[in-house]
Amino acid sequence: MERLELLALLLCGGVFLFGTADAVRYMVGGSSGWSEKVNYTVWAQDKHFYTVDWLFFVYQRNQFNVLEVNQTNYDACNAEHFLRNWTTGAGRDVVPLNVTRDYYFISGNGFCYGGTKVKVHVEDSPPPPASPKNSAGGAGAVSGRRGAMLIAASTAAIVVASLV
Ligand SMILES: *[C@@H]1O[C@H](CO)[C@@H](O)[C@H](O)[C@H]1NC(C)=O
Ligand SMILES: *[C@@H]1O[C@H](CO)[C@@H](O)[C@H](O)[C@H]1NC(C)=O
Ligand SMILES: *[C@@H]1O[C@H](CO)[C@@H](O)[C@H](O)[C@H]1NC(C)=O
Ligand SMILES: *[C@@H]1O[C@H](CO)[C@@H](O)[C@H](O)[C@H]1NC(C)=O
């Protein structure tokens, strides 16, 4: 009886892992990170962001920061009236994109004027696992994540097999 319960638990775990395999953590700007080297309009334009995804800002912590602003202040690079300061101080900030709306982020310290600003449009439902996201930057993250899920699921299967 105990074994059966454990088996059921492990199988459920496997299903759960597969079910959540769609979330993507996007490193903003790709390998260049949050800097002055990237056109973030171009970076974002081929991506689809969903309410399960995250943005990951990686940058020189003594120079840049991550401030969420509204559209007016994004356009004007006005860092004084930010909606939320996502800066933690480590130069590595994670932002959950958990609401269906447009998000606007800028760097203060004048860097916004140099192009360190990004707008992302967040859509409601993630696509079914059968249709992977068609984006250059996200593709690696998706397959990496899926790979990890597969490993986790196969480990569960091996544990199950050894119990039976
Ligand atoms: C970024 O690229 C877009 C599209 O090519 C262009 O319209 C825009 O002027 C560029 N922005 C900067 C800051 O160079
Ligand atoms: C953004 O906030 C400013 C105040 O900082 C306000 O004047 C402006 O109307 C707001 N813009 C939008 C699009 O909400
Ligand atoms: C944002 O928060 C960080 C960490 O608390 C702080 O060091 C920084 O001064 C804040 N930035 C602004 C513009 O308020
Ligand atoms: C979205 O995430 C932010 C940051 O963790 C949190 O403050 C906010 O309450 C969340 N909103 C929803 C609708 O979950």
Q: Main sheet, how many strands, which sense, barrel?
A: 5 strands, mixed
Percent in strands: 15-25%
Order of helices and strands: HEHEEEHEEEEH
- What's the alpha carbon Rg, rounded to whole Å? 19 Å
Cofactors and ligands present? 2-acetamido-2-deoxy-beta-D-glucopyranose
CATH fold field value of the largest domain: Immunoglobulin-like
Average pLDDT works out at 78
The helix tally amounts to 4
N-end to C-end Cα span: 12 Å
- What portion of residues is helical? 25-40%
Number of beta-strand segments? 8
CATH superfamily of the largest domain: Cupredoxins -  blue copper proteins
| CATH hierarchy: architecture of the largest domain | Sandwich
Describe what this molecule looks like in 3D.
This protein has a 5-stranded mixed sheet with strand order 2-8-7-4-5. The protein has 2 domains: 1-22 and 140-164; 24-126, Sandwich (Immunoglobulin-like), CATH 2.60.40. By secondary structure, it is an alpha/beta fold. The model is unreliable at 1-19 and 135-164 (pLDDT under 50). The protein has 4 helices and 8 strands, in the order αβαβββαββββα. The chain has helices at 2-19, 40-45, 71-76, 136-163; strands at residues 25-27, 49-50, 54-58, 67-69, 84-85, 92-96, 102-106, 117-123. It binds 2-acetamido-2-deoxy-beta-D-glucopyranose (4 copies).
